[in-house]
């Protein structure tokens, strides 16, 4: 299959490598011309996935028309906050032959609170579309470490096509009809990963982390279900699975941000240090809080992460606020 990866971050580059290994022809699009040139020259994406060699058959380009012109499958690997701009550019191109569109971004757009599928539909109309999500750090998938994810689409045939495209002996793909739940799970877990990182940065123990993760699962499901996600989705790979890996892994950018904050560093300082590398949970915190307020859903962890990130609240005070809330039944 002729495939185009729209976005040359660590995950987009890893999926280019995976699809090439599966026997597909791959073009990798970069928003940065200098990085596309460097990939072509070095056969490595040193900006976003250093240390992983890329076969010469994977072509890198900064020309969007060249990247997607002949593609039968288009993988949208652009961070959510930039997705609308990229999809708007795609909408201006001549007719695209793609029979499958796959989103792999995890986030909720600021102000509009749109999920990636809504952004794409608003610009391009209804398409054979699915979202691929789950516990899948690029650094591990790029090295062939066994991984399981979920392809979500209301159209079972679309989800099955995505499964056939990506699945191999180390990358297992399940299918789900719950596009809403999978997209929300993939976005919300990044907020809780920041909270987990704060716990680590403060030097809190295993008891604290276990309590946080357990209550995060309940909170994520509560908000996700109120927005139309299926309850069982948040107990699956796109919910709990992604939450566990993002809150625990040394590869997690969101956990890294939280850990640095827990050690007393400022968000501005951390952002400057990370450069082009995106921690989606920083912006998703704003969108998740907005959704919770709009739908009148209680999300105390999201609220405290927001207060720490954007209102300079001392993390110790945030922990105390969570611990001294009014007592309630666990399953209420």
Descriptive terms for the model:
15 helices, 2 domains, Rossmann fold, N-(1-d-carboxylethyl)-l-norvaline Dehydrogenase, domain 2, 332 residues, eight-stranded mixed sheet, alpha/beta
Description:
It contains 15 helices and 10 strands. With 332 residues, the protein is α/β, with parallel strands linked by helices. It has 2 domains: 2-177, 3-Layer(aba) Sandwich (Rossmann fold); 180-323, N-(1-d-carboxylethyl)-l-norvaline Dehydrogenase, domain 2 (Orthogonal Bundle). The strands form 2 sheets. Strands 5-2-1-6-7-8-9-10 form an 8-stranded mixed β-sheet, sandwiched between helices. Helix 4 (80-91) runs parallel beside helix 5 and helix 13 (280-295) crosses helix 14. The radius of gyration is 19 Å and the shape is globular. 50% of the residues are buried.
Global Rg: 19 Å
State the total count of DSSP E strands: 10
Query: Which superfamily, in CATH terms, is the homologous superfamily of the largest domain?
Result: NAD(P)-binding Rossmann-like Domain
Shape: globular
Element pattern in H and E:
EHEHEEEHEHEHEHEHEHHHHHHHH
**Biggest sheet details:** 8 strands, mixed
* Proportion of residues in β-strands: 5-15%
CATH topology of the largest domain: Rossmann fold
Question: How much helical structure, as a percent, in the residues?
Answer: 40-55%
Number of helices: 15
CATH architecture of the largest domain: 3-Layer(aba) Sandwich
Would you tell me the overall average pLDDT? Answer: 95
The end-to-end span amounts to 49 Å
Low-confidence stretches: none
Counted up, domains total: 2
- Structural class given helices, strands, pairing? alpha/beta
């Amino acid at each position: 299959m002729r495939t185009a990866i729209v976005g040359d971050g660590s995950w987009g580059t890893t999926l280019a490598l995976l699809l090439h290994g599966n026997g597909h022809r791959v073009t990798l699009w970069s928003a940065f011309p200098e990085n596309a040139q460097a990939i072509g020259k070095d056969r490595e994406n040193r900006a976003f996935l250093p240390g992983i060699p890329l076969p010469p058959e994977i072509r890198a380009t900064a020309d969007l028309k060249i990247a997607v012109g002949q593609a039968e499958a288009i993988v949208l690997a652009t961070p959510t906050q930039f997705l609308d701009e990229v999809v708007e550019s795609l909408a201006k191109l001549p007719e695209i032959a793609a029979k499958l569109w796959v989103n792999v971004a995890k986030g909720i757009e600021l102000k509009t609170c749109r999920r990636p599928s809504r952004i794409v539909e608003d610009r391009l109309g209804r398409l054979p579309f699915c979202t691929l999500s789950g516990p899948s750090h690029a650094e591990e998938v790029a090295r062939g470490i066994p991984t399981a994810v979920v392809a979500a689409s209301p159209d079972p045939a679309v989800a099955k096509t995505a499964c056939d495209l990506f699945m191999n002996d180390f990358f297992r793909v399940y299918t789900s009809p719950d596009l809403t739940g999978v997209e929300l799970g993939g976005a919300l877990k990044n907020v809780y990963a920041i909270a987990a990182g704060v716990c680590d940065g403060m030097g809190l123990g295993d008891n604290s982390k276990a309590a946080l993760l357990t209550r995060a699962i309940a909170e994520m499901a509560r908000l996700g279900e109120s927005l139309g996600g299926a309850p069982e989705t948040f107990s699956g790979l796109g919910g709990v699975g992604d939450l566990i890996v993002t809150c625990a892994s040394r590869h997690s950018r969101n956990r890294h941000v939280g850990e640095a904050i827990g050690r007393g560093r400022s968000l501005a300082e951390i952002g400057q240090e990370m450069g082009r590398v995106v921690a989606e949970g920083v912006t998703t915190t704003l969108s998740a809080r907005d959704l919770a307020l709009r739908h009148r859903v209680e999300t105390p962890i999201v609220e405290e992460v927001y207060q720490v990130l954007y209102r300079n609240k001392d993390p110790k005070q945030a922990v105390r606020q969570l611990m001294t809330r009014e007592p309630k039944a666990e399953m209420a």
